[in-house]
Design a protein that fits this description.
Helices cover about 10% and strands about 35% of the residues. By secondary structure, it is mainly beta. It has one domain. About 5% of the residues are buried.
Length: about 70
């Protein structure tokens, strides 16, 4: 998984699979889900990211939890 942030657009993009996007479903004005040709979710776009994700300009932070099961 890759997490990207565009400060000009205040947008976060989570890339789950890098195999291209077939279609996008907008679930709200600020959140869109990208589906690949395989029908699975390939990415998630979040606009107004600082507000929706409560990202601090002074102390941005990402926490990863319970990765032990994935790494096994």
């Amino acid at each position: 998984m890759k997490i990207s942030y565009d400060p000009k657009a205040d947008a976060v993009y989570l890339t789950l699979k890098g195999h291209g996007v077939d279609h996008t479903v907008r679930i709200s004005a600020d959140v869109a889900i990208d589906y690949g040709p395989d029908g699975e979710i390939h990415g998630i776009e979040i606009l107004s990211a600082r507000r929706l994700l409560k990202i601090s300009r002074k102390h941005p932070q990402v926490e990863l939890e319970q990765l032990e099961a994935v790494l096994r």
